[in-house]
Amino acid sequence: MSDEYNNRRNIKKMLYLLPLLLLSIIVFDNINQNLFAYGFIIPNSSRKNTKRNILIYENSNESFSNMNESFLKTEKVRLGFIGCGTIAAAIVKGLLTTEPPRKNSLLPIPIESIAVTSRSKQKSNSLKQSFPDFVHIYENGAQSILDNADVIFVCLLPEQISQMISSLKFDCKRHTLVSLASSNTLDELIKDSCLPPEKVYRMICLPSVARQQGGCLVVPKGNTLLKRMFEPLGGCFECENEDIMKAMMIPGCLMGPLYAILQSNRDWLVKHGVPKGDASHFVAKQYLSMMQDAEFDSRNPSRFDDLVNEQTPGGLNEQSIENLKELNVFKDYEEVMDAILSRLEGKTNGFISSRNS
Description:
The protein is an alpha/beta fold and about 350 residues long. The chain contains 15 helices and eight strands. The chain is globular. The termini are far apart.
């Protein structure tokens, strides 16, 4: 009798709990669908086919409530490039070959299309051939780029910027202007484009963004779309103001001297009997390994000091540092950086002789 009574009680409990169970399933399924719609969750069956523009959040410590609302926007953007030289081509390649980022990083921007001018036919045709579904070449002038894009990148020489931008009709509601020229100021760009200040930006990139290995500088701060777009290309460094950007541009201006050092190292090895191909490959590999050590924990402000100080006392590397100090090489590098900055500031033509005169 007691067993039958207990069985009936258990059945009643199950009947009472069944609606709650069904409600929980419905709520959970709704939440899961919303997260999937925003790109935070991807079914296991779809993960291996995911190539670009989706972020998988696994074991993320970042709470959804702290996420910027713009992270949840999934609208595709249309990009346009006026000028299609080395930097423009590198940006396009970098954006269209970006792999899904690691957890806790910014959601990337889905790209609908990229409009490019035919100013450099070789590069624009190459991009069209590599990315036929995204890249569209317009030969009817720069205004056609504005008509078919929302974020406009101007990749021209500084002396060409003002005349080009002032000849175009920008839509204040739709267009965002990004200039990659080295010296045109924000005030000049705003005046020439007639766009509101919050729609005008300056950016500096190196060609290595094509391989997602180049840090980008941008001013002013606060554009989430640009941050999300360029962070996967090697990092997006937002500058507080244009003076900070000028200073941060200078190490990038030592790219050429770095290549000249590699060239000198190669030639020295060849002079000592090393085959030229082996010398070139070996020098590149050596410097790459050094830079990888330097990049590790590079957010630590004392990282470079630690690397210098860890050289073996009395060893060959420490002696090389002392010899270079004796020759004032590091001070000469500082003087070169000062000269480049003075050119960006419009004070000199950038040559050491004119700066000292």
